[in-house]
């Protein structure tokens, strides 16, 4: 179900699961590396919240970005910040990994070093 909070669209588990393979959408896990390593959505890259400002200018403003964290709080803040920086299609995964019912993968899979890593 889609909703909105503070001007940011909110996606629940079903919406994220349905769109996960949509190449026009960049999914970004903004948790800390140890959280990501304990379990993340397969194929979703890690870009910790604190590193977002270092990459925001290079992020594709024409793409939809869905931000993910543990419960939806940090990713909401990142989505709002991204939106303020010109990423008009920033979306929050409301409920975050606590609400994720799909497959998870452990260990470091895909850490963003360069912004192009978000779009591979």
Automatic annotation (TrEMBL):
Keywords: Transferase. SMART domains: RHOD. Residues 101-120 are annotated as: Disordered. GO terms for molecular function: transferase activity. The keyword Nucleus does not apply. This is Rhodanese-related sulfurtransferase. It comes from the Bacteria. InterPro entries: GlpE_sulfurtransferase (IPR050229), Rhodanese-like_dom (IPR001763), Rhodanese-like_dom_sf (IPR036873). It holds the Pfam family Rhodanese. Residues 102-120 have a biased composition (Basic and acidic residues). Residues 21-109 form the Rhodanese domain. CDD domains: RHOD.
């Amino acid at each position: 179900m889609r909703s909105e909070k503070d001007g940011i669209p909110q996606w629940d588990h079903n919406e994220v699961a349905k769109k996960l393979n949509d190449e026009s959408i960049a999914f970004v896990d903004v948790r800390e590396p140890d959280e990501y390593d304990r379990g993340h959505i397969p194929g979703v890259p890690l870009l910790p919240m604190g590193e977002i400002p270092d990459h925001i200018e290079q992020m594709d403003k024409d793409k939809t970005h869905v931000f993910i964290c543990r419960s939806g709080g940090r990713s909401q803040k990142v989505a709002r910040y991204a939106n303020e920086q010109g990423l008009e299609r920033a979306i929050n995964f409301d409920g975050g990994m606590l609400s994720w019912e799909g497959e998870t993968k452990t260990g470091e899979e895909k850490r963003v070093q360069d912004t192009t890593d978000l779009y591979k």
